[in-house]
Protein 1
Amino acid sequence: MAFIETIPAEHAVDDVKAMYERQFLHYGYVPNYAFVFCHRPEVMKRWAELQSGIKRHMDKRRFELVTFAAAHALRSTLCSLAHGKALTEFLSPADVMAIARGEAPKSLTDAEAAMLEFARKVARDASSVTAGDVERLKSLGLTDAEIFDITATAAARAFWTKVIESLGVEADAPFLAMDRDFRDALTAGRPVVAVDDPAGTGKLAEQRARDAIRK
């Protein structure tokens, strides 16, 4: 599940148990990334607050576009898959895959296409961003506040991806159930590997985690 030892749901107490419960209530299971925060649950809480503060000023489509572009540029397969899937609420899977290839499908506005380029640049090398990059966004109708929001979204994604990728967080079952072509197209870094489990031990462990959270 990760490169470090983590606390199983059935052994969690206090703040760690509360963190697992929040994740379970949101997803219906405890995502693998949550377990690596068991040693510092307050960091997860602060991350959630940061995300909430950033997202408050953006519509969902823009947030997901920028987050996906940054995650893919940062070569985080898990974040690319999660936010690529979220983008299919607004775009076709084919268009999401096109964005992953660095293209700008016709379903995007000129401003959105520019936002993607800007987000990738922030994620890959923020020091390479120039005043001209910002002026281009302004010329397409974006305000200074909106440009800040886009920048903060991409920069925050860098923190998150570097934590989960550095600690070897593995894919959760929903990623493995995705359409194979879509999953392969959005694989930006570590491959998603399905672990053979003929005895069903993974399902048993998942059920035990669910039972532990419900107690």
Protein 2
Amino acid sequence: MASLAPTTSRRALLGALTAVTAGATAPTWRTALTRVQRAYDDDPITLTRTPSGRDLSRARYRRAEEFFPTGSPHSGMDHRDFLYRAGITAQLGLSSHLLDVGFPDAWCARHIGLRVAKSLAYANATGLGHECPEMARLADVLSPYNKWNEPHLFGPSPSDRGFAPKEIETLLLALLDRVRLVTGHPQRRARIIREQRHG
């Protein structure tokens, strides 16, 4: 899992973008974003970064760390609860990135909702750069994440596709690390969790 560790800081990313002409970078972003919008048949969106969006982005990142699930035997959480919290964590983290780059919160609520895989697609199309196949697979498992908090009296229960809690924790930590490095938000609880796992 060492390959999941993010390597690009926000400062380096912004520096690289500054070094390239706007004419070269803008079409790439627009093309990637348009491709995702067409794949999901979503309304067009114009990204506009604002101080209020930045503040909301920071709050979402903080909430993502607060919801971070733990597979500890003392957590009192069953597997479905764990997956539900994992979905919330991933969605809040991805939402932090989307808000930071200028997606309106209302647009995200209407077009993305609780679908973690869709959030990941939009985030990667707008510069998150977290092209991790296992995270993409987990995002599919978690989408929409409310399915893990609902009783399934009829029909098959959703499948976790063999994901173990420790593997999910590792993938979520890597995702939050990536969001933190791209947005520049401070790390709090994720660092504590990492230290507990390795301490």
